[in-house]
Amino acid sequence: MHYGWILTCALALGTCMQPPPPDAPTPVPEPVETIRDLRSMILNLSAEEAGIAPTPALPTVWGVVLDIGYPEGLATLVSLADGTTSLYLGHGGGYIGMGAHDSVREAGERLLKQAEASEVAFEPPSDVALPHVGQVRFYVLTHSGVVAAGAREADLRAGIGPLADLYAAAHAVITEIRLQAERQDG
Predict the structure, then answer these.
(1) What is the C-alpha end-to-end distance of the chain, expressed in Å?
(2) 64 three-class SS
(3) Does residue 12 surpass a pLDDT of 80?
(4) Chain segment 56-85, per-residue pLDDT in tens
């Protein structure tokens, strides 16, 4: 009998079946199809298709997409120069068309101006994969294409790193969306 081969296979399977190390990134749960489609649509949209032209205040940036990986799922914030502002939740919920409210629209404008002024070394993304749990990924939509950068959310919450100000501006938009949603529900 080939005991050496059996032992080799058993050892290989045992290694493959071990749980990941505790510091291994945890994938975010896959969003529902509608959210995947909305996210994909915005990340593949051009400024021309959206009808957004450069302005003196925003000569380069026309949108920001922020993905945050949570154990419960993905949260995606979209803010565009035409005022479009939405928050998609991976389980299928969210808030669409929130830029119709002045406070949300103004927070979105501040986010875009922060992205425009950012000196972060954004680079064209190799892919638009979902962030892992605890990770944040910014996609800045520019008139010459999409650029991206990411960081650990815990660092950004603590104000650490070159994306911290952009993260704070994005969370100001999320806060305004939440406050507006509470007003509508209340």
Answers:
(1) 74
(2) strand
(3) no
(4) 999 999 999 999 999 999 999 999 999 999
List the structure tokens of 165.
Answer: 């100000």
Position 167, amino acid:
Y
> Does the reported pTM lie above 0.70?
yes
User: Encoding tokens for residue 117?
Assistant: 């002024």
Q: Which two tokens stand for residue 84?
A: 């479009």
- What integer pLDDT is reported at residue 13 of this predicted model? 39
Residue 137: pLDDT over 90:
yes
Is the distance from CB of 78 to CB of 89 less than 8 angstroms? no
Closest CA to 36 of 86, 92, 83, 84: 92
CA 141 – CA 42 distance, rounded (Å): 9
Nearest to 78, CA basis, from 30, 123, 132, 42? 42
Position 19, amino acid: P
Provide the token pair at 139. Answer: 């996609």
